[in-house]
Amino acid sequence: IIEQGQPEHKVTTTCAYCGVGCSFDAHMQGEKVVRMVPSKDGQANHGHSCVKGRFAFGYATHQDRITTPMVRDHIDQPWREVSWEEAIQFAASKLKGIQQKYGKDSIGGITSSRCTNEETYLVQKLIRAAFGNNNTDTCARVCHSPTGFGLKATLGESAGTQTFDSVMKADAIIVIGANPTDAHPVFGSLLKKRLRQGAKLIIADPRKIDLGKSPHVHLDHHLPLRPGTNVAFINAMAHVIVDEGLEDKDFIAQRCQTDAYQQWYNFIKDSRHSPERTAEITGIDANELRLAARLYANANNAAIYYGLGVTEHSQGSSMVMGIANLALLTGNIGREGVGVNPLRGQNNVQGSCDMGSFPHELPGYQHVSNDLLRDKFEQHWQVTIDSEPGLRIPNMFDAAIDGTFKGLYCQGEDIAQSDPNTHHVQAALGSLECLIVQDIFLNETAKFAHVFLPGSSFLEKDGTFTNAERRINRVRKVMTPLAGLADWQATMALSNALGYEMNYQHPSEIMDEIAQLTPTFSGVSYEKLEQQTSIQWPCNDENPIGTPTMHVDNFPIGKATFAITEYVATSERANRKFPLLLTTGRILSQYNVGAQTRRTDNQAWHDKDVLEIHPHDAQERGIVDGDWLGINSRSGDTVLIAKITERMQPGVVYTTFHHPESGANVVTTDNSDWATNCPEYKVTAVQVNKVSSP
Ligand code: SF4
């Protein structure tokens, strides 16, 4: 695809990169995309875009696309190209054989936050109805699963509370563990607009991010905390507010559970949460923290935005609950300009969680152990559903190594590159008897696969994505699937081959089924999406056009709950052997493991991952810019190029993971969030030394 020529027609669809969910008009000549133009009607982007959505769509017709199904009996054999029918029968027969030999729970599947809601819904249905177990999980496991857990536990709903536009009414803004100008650029621009109008800004991040250095933006407080100390920091913020009597007493009395608040109040009042005591843990200057807490508490409207720097920790869920505590404490919930706002990484992280991909929850976060809720799905699907939660992704890897988990269907996710501790993941994948990979490229995971089902890009299918503000946007097909089938059709074929009949003619029928079974989606239909352009859930009889701001009068649980969030240091510690802490992130021009953006012209802007290191740490090791560096951790070793920068604080180094050869996840650890198993990507103790070559 190249940007040239005059369009013959245009089709409005949704960007397949980040969780902002920008709408684009694909200008078409026949089935060729001439250019992507940000849509002025897009309710998340209002005609704006970034370099990914605007220019990085050529991967869809890249020569690396695999368009023919392939199979092989062993992973050391070459691939054999076959018809769709043969590939599906091959996969079904392998999965049935595994279940006969090892039992029904020996197989499972992983859904993708890059696929549509309808495709994700079908995969979890396939697993529950055709596989007969709850061994379904999503790549959101490794990014925002703590958001789902933490917000449900405190506010009663696993979702952010605001629209993006709401930031224009915020007077004080805290950005924690997020880099919006690189990772969520269109929202980053909106944020800068509000900051240029004078909103106050607090950034809590181990690294200096561009937002704080933007022209005409004043950074009021940068709190450069040590990686792994988020919970100590958020508790100290709450402690100051309580200690100085800055809490919103009316809001707490009217909207929050009294007993839970009293218990939490006694917990947070303790002097171990004081800024001075916390400074020893976090490295944040006590006075700066005190000023930041006052600024947040005294603002008319104060909003918190956070990213993976919050969730990807062993205390990710505690930190999300700590953020919710802070918002409840100050009454910053339930109106515009405030709230708890997770910035979702991939385009459909929110949707993949909403659609029941988790092993313990059916669509709409309906728990599998609830007889009444399970019965509703059983009646509709005409199957029996297990009442016990199934395996999470890391449990699947462990069970594969133990020899009890033998078959995996992995749709649109490169787990061999994206999941932590690569050696462990590779060992797990290598022990499977049947790995089915469905992707647009022969990715790293496919090296361990027995069946490869060619996937379809977002340009080749109809469906919906749900962005970080719960906005359901339409994805519209602009070209015929290169492999002949869209992903949802391949999933349906596999289900039919396994003996569980699925017969949808169009993704709109899948959405109709979702609406019947999911109370927060009961008012959603493709017809309404055509009329309204987009819908923010909950959309039902009470909220027929959707819900821009959550928790205005009530929480889904009646009154909100404060959660006790005791700080527990991660077991991943720096020591003499591994004296630096490595943290990871993203860059503007690339996207996640880079499978898409590396196959576009964006590659020219960032063709390799580098290691950012503070001048002091570099000097100690005799490192100069451009040196090759060996990075060693307790999990593995890799090599990166040095970039010396004062963005970093001494003792902390940083890299991105957009290129498979950089192997950032070879060094990351097995540590994970206590509640959800979200990996602790953000803290790895490493040693860094000059090496002569890669
Ligand atoms: Fe796509 Fe996100 Fe960029 Fe919007 S901000 S164009 S959704 S990558």
How does the overall form come out from the CA principal axes? globular
Number of helical stretches of at least 4 residues: 23
Specify the CATH architecture of the largest domain. Answer: 3-Layer(aba) Sandwich
Alpha carbon gap, first and last residue:
34 Å
Cofactor: Mo-bis(molybdopterin guanine dinucleotide)
Organism: Thalassotalea nanhaiensis
Domain 4Fe-4S Mo/W bis-MGD-type: 8-64
Enzyme class: oxidoreductase
Q: Can you walk me through this structure?
A:
The longest helix has 19 residues, at 84-102. By secondary structure, the protein is α/β, with parallel strands linked by helices. A 7-stranded mixed beta sheet has the order 5-4-17-16-15-6-7, with helices on one face. A 6-stranded mixed beta sheet has the order 22-24-23-26-21-25. Strands 10-9-8-11-12 form a 5-stranded parallel beta sheet. It has 4 domains: 9-61, N-terminal domain of TfIIb (Single Sheet), CATH 2.20.25; 88-142 and 348-442 and 460-520, Rossmann fold (3-Layer(aba) Sandwich), CATH 3.40.50; 145-342, Dimethylsulfoxide Reductase, domain 2 (3-Layer(aba) Sandwich), CATH 3.40.228.10; 580-691, Barwin-like endoglucanases. Bound molecules: iron/sulfur cluster. The site of iron/sulfur cluster (SF4) has 14 residues, from helix 1 and helix 6.
List keywords for this structure.
694 residues; alpha/beta; N-terminal domain of TfIIb; Rossmann fold; Dimethylsulfoxide Reductase, domain 2; 23 helices; globular; binds iron/sulfur cluster; formate dehydrogenase (NAD+) activity; Formate dehydrogenase subunit alpha; iron
